[in-house]
Design brief:
123 residues, 59% helix
Length: 123
């Protein structure tokens, strides 16, 4: 059986239904809806809201969109979190860890924390 559709926007509905029914499928061209960057990013954001201890989701979400938080800062935060035996997200609530960063980076990290802390509390 082949399912042909004209726009990628239609793929999500079809894929969801195929998955729901347990029907295996193959995409001949393009990417699966769930493999698209934007969709994976949105799912990671939801994972982080649901489970702030998910460091993988944290690392994916913190770097997109650009927030003046580079790879070196993420690595520094990850080391500090590991040393403090906490998640990367939880580490952002600790002032002694934030002081490891220059003022602009610290502000970006605080804004990120506040956004996701608010979202976590809302859900």
């Amino acid at each position: 059986v082949a399912i042909i559709y004209r726009t990628n926007a239609q793929s999500s509905i079809l894929e969801q239904e195929l998955l729901r029914r347990g029907i295996k499928y193959f995409l001949a061209r393009g990417r699966s809806f769930f493999e698209r960057f934007e969709v994976r990013l949105a799912l990671d954001a939801l994972k982080l809201i649901y489970n702030p201890a998910d460091n993988d989701a944290f690392k994916n979400v913190i770097s997109t969109p650009p927030r003046n938080i580079g790879q070196k800062s993420i690595e520094k935060l990850e080391r500090a979190a590991t040393d403090g035996e906490s998640s990367m997200f939880e580490s952002l609530s600790k002032s002694h860890i934030l002081l490891l960063f220059p003022p602009k980076r610290r502000q970006a990290l605080e804004q990120f924390f506040q956004l996701f802390d608010d979202l976590t509390r809302a859900f």
